[in-house]
Design a protein that fits this description.
- The complex is a heterodimer of chains A (about 290) and B (about 300).
- Chain A has helices at about 1-30, 55-65, 75-110, 115-125, 130-145, 155-180, 185-190, 195-235, 240-250, 255-280; strands at about 35-40, 40-45.
- By secondary structure, chain A is mostly helical.
- Chain A folds into two domains: about 1-35 and about 45-55, no CATH class; about 70-285, Orthogonal Bundle (MetI-like fold), CATH 1.10.3720.10.
- The longest helix of chain A is centred in the last third of the chain and has 39 residues, at about 195-235.
- Chain B has a domain at about 120-185.
- The chains are: A mainly alpha (about 290), B alpha/beta (about 300).
- At the A-B interface, helix 7 and helix 8 of A face helix 3 of B.
- The structure holds adenosine-5'-triphosphate and magnesium ion.
- Magnesium ion binds near residues 77 and 191 of chain B.
C-alpha cells in the first residue's frame, strides 16, 4: 500500500531530522565556549556548560535513573511516561471536544453567511485571550457546577481548556474546506435537486477532507500544548505539565532532569500528531488533488 | 451525390414554429421541452446593470436538437442556466415541459453537462455516473446496472474503477455526459461540453451524441462556438448576438437523403451550404440581410433562414 510506504518514509525522514538535531546540539556544545558569546554586555549565544546544555547521553542516562532519593521512587522514564499518558488522555478528550465544536461551528458558518460574519471575528478574538488568565476562570466555573452525581474534576477543566485551543484551527480549516467545492460542483448538486444536507454529506464534507486533515493535526498539537499549560496554571497533578515544573526546580543540581521531561512533552505532541496521521490513512480516498 | 433536401422529420418535430414572438397564450398540444416567452435577464454588478438577455423567444419541441451559437458574452450560458433554474429570469415566462423551471428541476426532467466536467475527484468513474441516482435513492443493484449501461454507451466500460484524475479530458467529459444521461432525462442541457476536446475526439463525441439522442429521444439545448458542430448536430441553430444578448436568427438545418447524421454528412454539399448559412447569419447579424441563400430556400421549402 503506497500510503503505508509513504508514511514509513516520512517517519524515517523525521528520525533522521531528530538525529541531526541531536548532533547539532553536541556540535554547538563543543564549538561555543562554555560561557557563551558576548558582545559587550549583550549575549549573542547562550552558555553551553553542562548545567545549561547537558550532554545528550547524560539526559538519556538520567531517564534510566531513579526520579528522587526516596526508596520506592520510579525512574525518570517511568515517571515521564505515566505523566505523558495522563496528559495524552486529557489532550485527546480536549481534541475530540474541540473537533466536534469546530466542525459544528464551521457547518454553521457555511450554512449561514451571516453566521460567518458574526462568529468568525469572535473565533479569531478568542485565541488572543491568554490561557493563563482563562484557566482559573474555568476551574472556578467548573467548581460551581452541579451535575447530579457527576463531580466536576480538575482534569475536565484542563480538557476544556485544551479544546478551547484545538477548536480554532479545526473551525477555520473546516470552513475553508466546506467552501472549497467549485461553483460547477455546487450547481451540479442543485441541478439534481439535492438539499443542503445531502450536499453537505456527499459534496462539502468529502471536499473538506484535504483542508481538514492539516487542521486536525494542528488541533492535536495545540490540544497537547493547551493541556500542558492548563495543567500548570490550574495546578493539576499527575500530568506532564506538573512534571516539567517540578523537574525544572531541580535544574541547578540535576541539569539533565528537566530535559528529560521536555523530551516527554515533545514525544507527546508527536504521538498526538501520529494519531491524526492514522486518520489520514483511513481517509486517503478523499485526499485527492482537485480535478475540474 | 445529389439528393433533394428533405426535412429531418423524425426527431425534429419541425412543424413547431421557430419562435413565438407574440405574448404567450399557452399553446395546445403536447408541452414543448423548453418554451421561453419574452425572457429578460439583467445582472446587477458593481459596474452597473448588465443586460445578459433581452426579449428572448424560443421554443424547443420534445426530441428536438437546438444549438445556441453566438459571440462570447451574448448570453448563451445565461439562457441555459435560466432553463436549468440555476438563475431566475428578470422578466418573461419560461417553462420546461409546461412546468416552471424549478418544478422541472425538482422533477429531474433534465440532465446537464457543462464545459467543466465537474466530476468528484474522490469518486470512481462509476461512482460519478451513479451520483444522480444515489442522490435520488435508487437502490445499489439498479445503480450498478445503469452505470454499466451508461459506461458502455460512452465507451468507458474498462475505466469504471479509475478515478477522474486518471482520465484524459475527453474521457472525463464522456463521464460527465454519462452522468447527465443517468436518469433518462427527456431534456439535455449542454454548455460547450466538447469545448476542451481535440478535433478528432470532438467529431467522434458528436457522432456518439447523435446516436445517444436518437436512442433516448431526448430534446437537447446545446451551446457551442463551432459552426460545423452546430450544423452537424442540430435540427435548428439559434444565432445570438451580444449587447444586449438576444436571438438574431434561427437557421433550420435540413439534411439530404434520409436525414441521417453520419460521418459522410460532413463532406456533403448541403452540410457546407448550411455552415455558410449559419456563418452569414452570425456575421451579418440581424441588420438588413433579408435573403441569405440557404439551400433549403432554393429547394422551395417554406422556411429558410429566419431572420428577425
Ligand atoms: N452572475 C453574473 N453576474 C453578472 N454578470 C453576469 C453573470 N453571468 C453572466 N453575466 C454577464 O452576462 C453576459 C452573458 O454571459 P454568458 O455567460 O451568458 O455569455 P456566453 O454567451 O455564455 O459567453 P461565452 O461564449 O463566453 O461562454 C455577459 O456580459 C456576462 O458578463
Ligand atoms: Mg458560456
Amino acid at each position: 500500500m503506497s500510503g503505508v510506504r509513504a508514511g514509513l518514509r516520512r517517519a524515517g525522514v523525521a528520525l533522521v531530522a531528530l538525529l541531526v538535531a541531536l548532533v547539532l546540539w553536541e556540535v554547538v556544545k563543543a564549538v561555543v565556549p562554555d560561557t557563551g558569546v558576548h558582545l559587550g554586555t549583550a549575549s549573542l549565544l547562550p552558555r553551553t556548560d553542562d548545567r545549561a546544555m547537558p550532554h545528550v547521553w547524560d539526559v538519556l542516562a538520567r531517564l534510566g535513573e531513579a526520579e528522587s532519593g526516596a526508596r520506592d521512587a520510579p525512574t525518570v522514564l517511568a515517571a515521564t511516561l505515566s505523566a505523558a499518558v495522563f496528559t495524552l488522555g486529557i489532550a485527546l478528550v480536549g481534541w475530540a471536544l474541540g473537533v466536534v465544536g469546530g466542525l459544528l461551528l464551521a457547518v454553521l458558518m457555511q450554512r449561514w453567511r451571516v453566521a460567518e460574519h458574526a462568529v468568525l471575528p469572535w473565533v479569531v478574538l478568542s485565541q488572543t485571550v491568554p490561557l493563563v488568565a482563562l484557566a482559573p476562570l474555568v476551574v472556578g466555573w467548573g467548581g460551581r457546577l452541579e451535575l447530579g452525581p457527576l463531580q466536576w474534576e480538575r482534569w475536565m477543566s484542563v480538557a476544556l481548556i485544551a479544546s478551547y485551543l484545538a477548536f480554532f484551527p479545526v473551525a477555520v480549516g473546516a470552513l475553508r474546506g466546506l467552501q472549497s467545492p467549485t461553483a460547477a460542483q455546487v450547481e451540479l448538486f442543485r441541478a439534481q435537486a439535492a438539499g443542503w444536507g445531502r450536499t453537505l454529506v456527499s459534496l462539502r464534507l468529502p471536499a473538506a477532507v484535504p483542508h481538514l486533515l492539516p487542521a486536525l493535526r494542528l488541533g492535536a498539537a495545540t490540544a497537547v500544548v493547551g493541556a500542558i499549560v492548563a495543567e500548570v496554571s490550574t495546578g493539576t497533578r499527575g500530568g506532564i505539565g506538573r512534571l516539567v515544573v517540578s523537574y525544572a526546580q531541580a535544574a541547578s543540581g540535576d541539569p539533565a532532569k528537566p530535559w528529560a521531561a521536555l523530551l516527554g512533552a515533545a514525544v507527546l505532541g508527536l504521538v498526538a500528531a501520529g494519531v491524526v496521521g492514522l486518520l489520514g490513512l483511513v481517509l486517503r480516498r478523499y485526499r485527492t488533488a482537485e480535478v475540474s | 451525390m445529389r439528393s433533394i433536401p428533405v426535412p429531418t422529420g423524425s426527431r425534429s418535430g419541425s412543424t413547431t414554429s421557430a419562435v413565438a414572438p407574440a405574448a404567450g397564450a399557452p399553446r395546445p398540444g403536447p408541452a414543448a421541452a423548453v418554451r421561453a416567452v419574452g425572457v429578460h435577464k439583467r445582472f446587477r454588478t458593481r459596474a452597473g446593470v448588465v443586460t445578459a438577455l433581452q426579449d428572448v423567444h424560443l421554443e424547443v419541441a420534445a426530441g428536438e436538437f437546438v444549438s445556441l451559437i453566438g459571440p462570447s458574452g451574448c448570453g448563451k450560458s445565461t439562457l441555459l442556466r435560466l432553463v436549468a433554474d440555476l438563475e431566475e429570469p428578470t422578466s418573461g415566462e419560461l417553462s420546461v415541459f409546461g412546468k416552471a423551471p424549478r418544478v422541472a428541476r425538482e422533477a429531474q426532467d433534465y440532465g446537464i453537462a457543462f464545459q467543466q466536467a465537474g466530476l468528484l475527484p474522490w469518486r470512481s468513474v462509476r461512482g460519478n455516473v451513479e451520483l444522480p441516482l444515489e442522490l435520488h435513492g435508487v437502490g445499489r443493484r439498479e445503480r450498478a446496472g445503469r452505470a454499466r449501461e451508461l459506461l458502455a454507451l460512452v465507451g468507458l466500460s474498462d475505466f469504471a474503477d479509475h478515478t477522474p484524475a486518471q482520465l484524459s479530458g475527453g474521457m472525463q467529459q464522456r463521464v460527465a455526459i454519462a452522468r447527465a444521461l443517468a436518469e433518462r432525462p427527456s431534456l439535455l442541457l449542454m454548455d460547450e461540453p466538447f469545448g476542451a476536446l481535440d478535433e478528432m475526439t470532438r467529431e467522434r463525441m458528436q457522432t456518439e451524441l447523435v446516436r445517444i439522442c436518437a436512442e433516448s429521444g431526448a430534446a437537447v439545448v446545446f451551446v457551442t462556438h463551432s459552426i460545423p458542430e452546430a450544423v452537424f448536430l442540430s435540427d435548428r441553430v439559434v444565432v445570438m448576438s451580444p449587447r444586449p444578448g438576444r436571438i438574431s436568427a434561427v437557421v433550420p438545418i435540413r439534411l439530404p437523403g434520409t436525414g441521417e447524421r453520419t460521418e459522410g454528412l460532413r463532406e456533403d454539399a448541403a452540410f457546407f451550404a448550411a455552415v455558410t448559412a449559419v456563418r452569414e447569419a452570425l456575421h451579418g447579424g440581424a441588420a438588413g440581410t433579408p435573403a441569405v441563400a440557404a439551400p433549403e430556400t432554393a429547394a422551395g421549402a417554406p422556411r429558410g433562414v429566419d431572420l428577425r
